[in-house]
Amino acid sequence: MRQRSLIAITAALAAGALTLTACGSRDKGGNGSDSGSGGTTVTIGVDAPLTGDLSELGLGIKNSVDLAVNQANKKKYVDGVTFKIEAKDDQAQPSSGQANATAFVGDSNVYGVVGPLNSSVAQSMQKVFDDAKLVEVSPANTSPDLTQGPNWQTSKSRQYKSYFRTATTDAIQGPYAAQYVYNTAKLNKAFIIDDKKTYGAGLAATFTDEFKKLGGKVVGTEHINPDSKDYSAVATKVKNSGATVVYYGGEYPQAGPLSKQIKAAGANIPLVGGDGIYADDFLTLAGSAANGDLATSVGAPVETLASAKEFVANYKAAGYKEAYGAYGGYSYDSAWSIIEAVKKVVDDNNGKLPSDARAKITAAVQNVSFDGVTGKVSFDEYGDATNKQLTVYKVTSGAWKAATSGTYTPSS
Amino acid sequence: MNELPQQLVNGLLLGSMYGLVAIGYTMVYGIVQLINFAHGEIFMTGAFGALTVYAYVLPGGTSMWIALPLMLVGAIIVAVLVAVGAERFAYRPLRTAPRLAPLITAIGLSLALQQAVWAWYPEAKSARTFPTIPGGPFNIGNVTIQTGDIFLVVVAPLSMAFLAYFVMRTRTGRGMQATAQDPDTAKLMGVNTDRIIVIAFALGAAFAAIGGVAYGLKYGQIDFKMGFLLGLKAFTAAVLGGIGNIYGAALGGLVLGVAEALSTAYISDIPGMDKFGSQSWADVWAFVLLILVLLFRPQGLLGERVADRA
After folding, report:
1. Which of B31, B180, B257, B302 could join B11 via S-S bond, C-beta 3.0 to 4.6 A?
2. Which stretches of chain B sit within 8 Å of chain A by CB?
3. How far apart are CA A204 and CA A213, in angstroms?
4. ipTM of this model?
């Protein structure tokens, strides 16, 4: 009996302590507007997977937004406004993403959010942000549904007025990969694998359509369970199908082991994927099996664009522990589109944030146009980036090397 | 080309890993009627124990042939310490409590162990690379066995043989059997049941640790979540084979592994079933099999008695 009451007291204390900490951090956020150099503080939220399998990409996003905010503060880009970031971890889970979105909406200092990484997470956040007229700019979501609606192939319709993205969509990325595989790499028998997530399945479907249209043959399809690491049965099927190329719609935590196990099963054929596998961790996970594998990624290679050299140099100088990754440039541009919009709104209102600042900033993001790290940054009527540049990367002696870069033109 | 032999081998290899972990579930259940849901995490800590030995204890570039036995020892030490600690501080105080209390404790412990590794193990927030055995794959006919799997092929049967000997032939093993049958009478006959329970936890943890090393060698990476799904599968294997029976755990693991491999490979070939045959459905078929087996043999494949005290 005594022991039981002891447990109860401990539990009560622990719960109390947790509540207190939670309150503490919220208070700190609330007082944010009074601090700084006498001006207004504008918080830009960041939502990305900061822990777990996809944290390499997520931390790259967070750091890049942090860099954008620091640059804006350093240049005193918007008079009287100090920017800061507030990063939340969504663990790539739609439920966590939605909880984070609600928290951002509740914090009156947040005037824009960069993120998330995953299309499936974005689906759970869009409405929360739209109801609050809080602008959300994703550097990485590629699912066409998010902007153009579930029937985007036949009738496009804008889903949420507060949602924008700097990344290009699967509607372009999948077909672009198919054209490269069929026309340039001359591989015509494909085995299609996806992870059944919004991103992966969408990519696999658009690849398949274009590949068949070009005259390629799909010799098999598979859906893997992303929680499992044993793909030996799938690898054996791939080997026996006689495929000359594997297309994988999904992300690197599964793509790495998958590539490795397919090669180990004796099928020495390249694995092709989207920007979700374009990560250094893919190379680590797949080991030497990665050589020859291909990935498409949105935009031109960040390192080669003149506008991007400054970003890369500043990122290095800032000394972040993690690489900026596949979405660093897009995250930087996403943050800047919010900063530009804040500047516009503040300038139009005699140097002060208006009372309906969130709605005004959302409207202003729609009309931004500036030269960013990834090229010209502006948004079309659906909230998609107008920049449709794509690059194919190939693993050559253990590193990603740009193979070709261009804009997608639909095949007739 | 006929892919059946290769798919059988894939399934058997996966299944022997399930079996190694399932033994821990079945032994602990057999003796204290506790479903130790933290066992998947003990498997995970074992793998991290092995990685610790390789990455932080041994000098860089140590040959795998020297490193592997030491890694195995490290894995077993860590897993056994965690399991014995869990028994002593989490389960023993609740031994006379209602059955649900230790079960919930086990679930809590499982989450706590995951988060502890996530928070404190260096760079464990995403997957960590595990050393692999050098050398190419082996081909027997048109069946390929990966180098990393050789470990499973050798170690899984050996461990099983050792366990059978230990339980059937040694004094402690017979004490375990006695405690499983009737703890009170065993105590009256002079069996130190507390010690037997600790040994059951330790032995189960050691097997899980071997499984953890096998997992690392097979897939080349380990992460803090690896124990969750595998633990669930191993538990399924233990139930399938007949919980409380160590041979059942091994058999259940193998059956489950083969069922998964074959359903991935062949169900999509059945006309009209192409939507239900991919690897993401393999788990569903595995559980369909479990339900079918339990319908006709509620005690599991090799189970002898219905769990009467659960």
Report:
1. B257
2. 1, 3, 6-7, 10-11, 13-14, 93, 118, 125-127, 129, 132, 137, 144, 146, 215, 218-221, 223, 225-226, 228-229, 260-262, 264-265, 278-283
3. 14
4. 0.77
Residues A70 and A215 in one domain: no
Residue A385, in any domain of the structure: no
Q: CATH number for the domain including A281?
A: 3.40.50.2300
Number of domains into which chain A is organized: 2
Q: Are residues A243 and A359 in the same domain?
A: no
Angle between helices B193-219 and B226-241 (to 10 degrees): 120
Give the chain B residue nearest A233 (alpha carbons).
Answer: B261
A310 touches chain B (CB under 8 A): no
Contact (CB<8Å) A221/B278:
yes
Cβ contacts of B123 within 8 Å, gap of 6 or more: none
Q: Which of residues 234-293 of A touch B (CB under 8 A)?
A: 234, 236-237, 239-240, 253, 256-257, 260, 264-266, 281, 284-285, 287
pLDDT digit string, tens, across residues B107-146: 999 999 999 998 899 888 778 888 888 877 788 888 888 8
Tell whether A395 and A280 lie within a shared domain: yes
| B22 DSSP assignment | H
A153 with A259, same domain: the answer is no
Counted domains in chain B: 1
Asked whether residue A412 is assigned to any structural domain, the reply reads no
What does the alpha-carbon distance between residue A132 and residue B260 come to, in Å, rounded to a whole number? 47
Assess contact for B15 and B254: CB atoms under 8 A.
yes
User: pTM above 0.90?
Assistant: no
Tell whether B4 is covered by a domain.
no
Range of the domain at A87: 2-29+39-168+304-379
